[in-house]
Design brief:
Helices cover 66% and strands 5% of the residues. The protein is mostly helical. Among the domains are: 85 residues; 34 residues. α1 packs across α2.
Length: 175
């Protein structure tokens, strides 16, 4: 029985064929790349252990962890000092490459020899300059592409905190 007010008719997604968004390349190849990286790290550790001994491998891993911690601490201090100086001057902080130094330290702290090589490379100033230039170009290109960042925020708003997504369309039949 109706009370006189029209009820809206709901069209659910069951009546429309679902449209699957195209899967990004990053989502496709990132798990494969991580698995290949892990296999490479394990293989390198076994090769070095076979050529020397397990104690040498353990010492290399501990030295990488300690060196990475020192690098991260130093880069963090430098970044904080730059921020303090900028606040006292009342200007923007100067760019110093501390983020890439911290990333290099993090790679040094990750157990493995290939990650140690990447971490040591990120500590070199010419490599930092090349990586930061590449990152800036990619960031500018992504910012120039219309809708990519906005689409990401829109997708984040659509999903409810409990994980449920309600798709549908409300059709009002106001007579």
């Amino acid at each position: 029985m109706t009370t006189g007010s029209p009820t809206p008719a709901y069209r659910t997604s069951a009546q429309q064929p679902p449209v699957r968004p195209r899967r990004s390349r990053l989502r496709t190849f990132l798990p494969l790349a991580l698995a290949a990286w892990l296999v490479l790290e394990i293989w390198l550790l076994t090769v070095v252990a076979g050529a020397t001994s397990g104690l040498v491998v353990l010492l290399l891993l501990v030295a990488g962890f300690v060196l990475g911690g020192v690098v991260i601490k130093r880069a963090g201090r430098r970044a904080f000092q730059n921020l303090n100086e900028a606040l006292q001057r009342g200007s923007a902080p100067r760019r110093g490459g501390n983020g890439l130094m911290m990333l290099g330290g993090l790679f040094l702290m990750i157990p493995g020899l290939a990650s140690d090589v990447v971490g040591l490379l990120l500590l070199l100033p010419p490599v930092q300059k090349a990586v930061s230039g590449y990152g800036e170009r990619k960031l500018r290109a992504a910012a120039a592409t219309p809708g990519t960042l906005g689409d990401a925020f829109q997708q984040a708003r659509i999903h409810r905190p409990d994980g449920k997504v309600v798709q549908g369309e409300v059709i009002r039949d106001d007579r």
